């Protein structure tokens, strides 16, 4: 056995492992089964490629796409490693090369699709060839809870048994707790070593906008990235073609990519994107899995992604080189309706449809999050972090209000119904709707029945998504989508903590446009403006006194607005961006004093 660090340097040309790689490599070399969850771009492939080179034997790699196999095999052979694949795109010469290398014991890494491995004769041949490591890429596809469950992946547990219970490493970038548990149950007889190396990609700037003028919003975003490589995801083949054409007419080097194109045209466009700079790939979700272009500087979604996991995976194709990268997601009610329709009309089981509905709800909660988007995104995967300062909500702030009472109404409805019900039942309780289900459970007799009649169902859905994003409630995906209350939610319900919620997402589109126009028209204040620096100093002092992040007091955008407008009255202060009634009552006097002293 050769030293892994020596192989890393001599074969792959790297001076050191990326975070998380070395401990996984050593666990595999110690003969342990492994389930590894690593962020996109963290170098998952190396975790099975390097151990293969450090010892004798054949590694079988399960991969979902022929194009991905092709690229991986080409890269390995470029490193001087004997690699091949079993797929329908091979010609006779390639099939002969692969079978000869396997028979003679020269083949080190052999790639195959799960469909090919479902063939008993294929796995019997591989068992005789002496496979000693099974590597399963995109392992979330194994699980019914995974966002991209594939029935053929579910057969891999049986494939593993037919190979003699061979040592196995399963890898994915997106697996929540339920998905991880399901992967373990389906693939392994005994508990594998679990490595979770974080979901955060701090170099990605996260931003989401409600749709108003999709073309204008997209072009405004892309104008900041001329001559850079990036991806724009569309929801349909037709939208892909139209946008690619429009961008080309506007002077971008834009190429379409979708499943309706001829295979040769798709491969040609993909190769251009991978090999050249300044290409905008306009694509459906058919494009992206396994794309390892390190200098993708932006990813935009012209419509709502399929799920929060799909969103994470798709934006993860940007900034793999670790340098800053930009993302923008546009969403609208029509997108949400379309996604729900796609779920209901699919051939999935009732159980899978239920899971997909909850995943979509989690994504919408991210769109309407009242705090740092990165905090909300990572919380979905079970991680916590400080406000990132690199998302639109941290940078621009939000229009907010004291939402403690609204949250308490929602939390009370959850508690009084026994933490056993989903969204629509709870909202029916709040608005006082007389339904058969409400009467059957006697929930029309609860104190909370009808206490939210002053708001529409749509508003309550948004408010529930917001308190979910804040971590006050938890959504049990594997238990019929029921809501439960967290410790933080209990504190809010008891009045021990107060919270702020977003007002702008409750506005009608016309009101949002008016507000955005007013904000865009405001004067830009330089960063070294003396008044702005004094306002920031006050914010820092207050944040330390209250033991909260500075943005909780006011965002930079609010302070810039103050420095530009220089309000001297309470009424004028109330017109500042991000100043709701609660912040007006709490902070107006202190900040107005700074403005007046500066004027004096």
From TrEMBL:
<keyword id="KW-0413">Isomerase</keyword>
<keyword id="KW-0347">Helicase</keyword>
<dbReference type="GO" id="GO:0005524">
    <property type="term" value="F:ATP binding"/>
</dbReference>
<dbReference type="Pfam" id="PF00270">
    <property type="entry name" value="DEAD"/>
</dbReference>
<keyword id="KW-0227">DNA damage</keyword>
<keyword id="KW-0233">DNA recombination</keyword>
<keyword id="KW-0234">DNA repair</keyword>
<keyword id="KW-0378">Hydrolase</keyword>
<dbReference type="GO" id="GO:0006310">
    <property type="term" value="P:DNA recombination"/>
</dbReference>
<dbReference type="GO" id="GO:0006281">
    <property type="term" value="P:DNA repair"/>
</dbReference>
<dbReference type="Pfam" id="PF16124">
    <property type="entry name" value="RecQ_Zn_bind"/>
</dbReference>
<dbReference type="InterPro" id="IPR032284">
    <property type="entry name" value="RecQ_Zn-bd"/>
</dbReference>
<dbReference type="InterPro" id="IPR027417">
    <property type="entry name" value="P-loop_NTPase"/>
</dbReference>
<dbReference type="GO" id="GO:0003677">
    <property type="term" value="F:DNA binding"/>
</dbReference>
<comment type="similarity">
    <text>Belongs to the helicase family. RecQ subfamily.</text>
</comment>
<dbReference type="Pfam" id="PF00570">
    <property type="entry name" value="HRDC"/>
</dbReference>
<dbReference type="GO" id="GO:0043138">
    <property type="term" value="F:3'-5' DNA helicase activity"/>
</dbReference>
<dbReference type="GO" id="GO:0006260">
    <property type="term" value="P:DNA replication"/>
</dbReference>
<dbReference type="Pfam" id="PF00271">
    <property type="entry name" value="Helicase_C"/>
</dbReference>
<keyword id="KW-0862">Zinc</keyword>
<dbReference type="InterPro" id="IPR002121">
    <property type="entry name" value="HRDC_dom"/>
</dbReference>
<dbReference type="InterPro" id="IPR018982">
    <property type="entry name" value="RQC_domain"/>
</dbReference>
<dbReference type="InterPro" id="IPR014001">
    <property type="entry name" value="Helicase_ATP-bd"/>
</dbReference>
<feature type="domain" description="Helicase ATP-binding">
    <location>
        <begin position="25"/>
        <end position="193"/>
    </location>
</feature>
<keyword id="KW-0238">DNA-binding</keyword>
<keyword id="KW-0479">Metal-binding</keyword>
<dbReference type="InterPro" id="IPR004589">
    <property type="entry name" value="DNA_helicase_ATP-dep_RecQ"/>
</dbReference>
<dbReference type="InterPro" id="IPR001650">
    <property type="entry name" value="Helicase_C-like"/>
</dbReference>
<dbReference type="GO" id="GO:0030894">
    <property type="term" value="C:replisome"/>
</dbReference>
<dbReference type="GO" id="GO:0046872">
    <property type="term" value="F:metal ion binding"/>
</dbReference>
<dbReference type="InterPro" id="IPR010997">
    <property type="entry name" value="HRDC-like_sf"/>
</dbReference>
<dbReference type="InterPro" id="IPR011545">
    <property type="entry name" value="DEAD/DEAH_box_helicase_dom"/>
</dbReference>
<keyword id="KW-0547">Nucleotide-binding</keyword>
<dbReference type="GO" id="GO:0009378">
    <property type="term" value="F:four-way junction helicase activity"/>
</dbReference>
<dbReference type="Pfam" id="PF09382">
    <property type="entry name" value="RQC"/>
</dbReference>
<dbReference type="InterPro" id="IPR044876">
    <property type="entry name" value="HRDC_dom_sf"/>
</dbReference>
<dbReference type="InterPro" id="IPR036388">
    <property type="entry name" value="WH-like_DNA-bd_sf"/>
</dbReference>
<dbReference type="GO" id="GO:0016787">
    <property type="term" value="F:hydrolase activity"/>
</dbReference>
<keyword id="KW-0067">ATP-binding</keyword>
<feature type="domain" description="HRDC">
    <location>
        <begin position="525"/>
        <end position="600"/>
    </location>
</feature>
<dbReference type="GO" id="GO:0005737">
    <property type="term" value="C:cytoplasm"/>
</dbReference>
<dbReference type="GO" id="GO:0009432">
    <property type="term" value="P:SOS response"/>
</dbReference>
């Amino acid at each position: 056995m050769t030293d892994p660090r020596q192989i890393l340097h001599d074969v792959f040309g790297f001076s050191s492992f990326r975070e998380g790689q070395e401990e996984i490599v050593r666990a595999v070399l110690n003969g342990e089964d492994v389930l590894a969850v690593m962020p996109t771009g963290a170098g998952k492939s190396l975790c099975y490629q390097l151990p293969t080179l450090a010892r004798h034997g054949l590694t079988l790699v399960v991969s979902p796409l022929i194009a991905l196999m092709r690229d991986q095999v080409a890269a390995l052979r470029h490193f001087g490693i004997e690699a091949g694949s079993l797929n329908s795109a091979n010609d006779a010469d390639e099939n002969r090369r692969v079978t000869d290398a396997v028979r003679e014991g020269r083949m080190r890494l052999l790639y195959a699709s799960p469909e090919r491995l479902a063939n008993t004769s294929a796995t019997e041949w591989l068992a005789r060839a002496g496979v000693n490591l099974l590597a399963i890429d995109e392992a979330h596809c194994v699980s019914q809870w995974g966002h991209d469950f594939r029935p053929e992946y579910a057969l891999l547990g049986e494939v593993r048994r037919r190979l003699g219970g061979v040592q196995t490493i399963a890898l994915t970038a997106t697996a929540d707790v339920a998905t991880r548990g399901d992967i373990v149950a389906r693939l392994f007889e005994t508990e594998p070593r679990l490595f979770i190396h974080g979901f955060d990609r701090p170099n990605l700037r996260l931003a989401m906008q409600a749709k108003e003028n999709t073309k204008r919003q997209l072009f405004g975003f892309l104008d900041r990235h001329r001559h850079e490589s990036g991806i724009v995801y569309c929801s349909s083949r037709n939208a892909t073609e139209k946008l690619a054409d429009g961008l080309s007419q506007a002077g971008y080097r834009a190429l379409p990519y979708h499943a309706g194109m001829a295979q040769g045209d798709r491969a040609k466009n993909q190769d251009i994107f991978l090999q050249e700079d300044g290409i905008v790939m306009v694509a459906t979700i058919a494009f992206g899995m396994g794309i390892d272009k390190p200098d993708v500087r932006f990813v935009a979604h012209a419509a709502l992604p399929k799920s929060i996991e799909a969103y994470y995976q798709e934006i993860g194709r940007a900034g793999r080189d670790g340098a800053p990268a930009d993302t923008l997601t546009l969403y609208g009610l029509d997108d949400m309706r379309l996604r729900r329709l796609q779920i209901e009309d699919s051939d999935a089981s009732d159980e899978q449809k239920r899971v997909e509905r909850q995943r979509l709800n989690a994504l919408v909660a991210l769109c309407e999050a009242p705090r740092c988007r990165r905090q909300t995104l990572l919380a979905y995967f079970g991680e916590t972090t400080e406000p990132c300062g690199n998302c639109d909500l941290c940078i621009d702030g939000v229009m907010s209000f004291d939402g403690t009472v609204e949250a308490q109404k929602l939390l009370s409805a959850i508690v009084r119904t026994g933490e056993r019900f989903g969204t629509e039942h709870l909202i029916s309780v709040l608005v006082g709707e007389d339904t058969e289900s409400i009467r059957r459970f006697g929930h029309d007799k609860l104190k909370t029945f009808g206490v939210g009649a002053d708001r529409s169902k749509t508003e309550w859905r948004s408010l529930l998504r917001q308190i979910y994003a804040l971590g006050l409630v938890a959504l049990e995906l594997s238990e019929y989508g029921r809501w439960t209350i967290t410790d933080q939610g209990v504190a809010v319900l008891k009045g021990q903590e107060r919270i702020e919620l977003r007002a702008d997402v409750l506005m009608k589109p016309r009101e949002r446009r008016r507000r955005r126009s007013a904000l865009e028209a405001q004067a830009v204040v330089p960063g070294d403006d003396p008044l702005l620096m004094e306002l920031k100093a006050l914010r820092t002092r207050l944040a330390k006194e209250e033991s909260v992040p500075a943005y909780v007091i006011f965002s930079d955008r609010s302070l810039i607005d103050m420095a530009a407008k220089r309000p001297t009255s309470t009424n004028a202060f109330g017109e500042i961006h991000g100043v709701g009634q609660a912040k007006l009552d709490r902070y107006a006097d202190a900040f107005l004093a700074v403005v007046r002293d500066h004027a004096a």
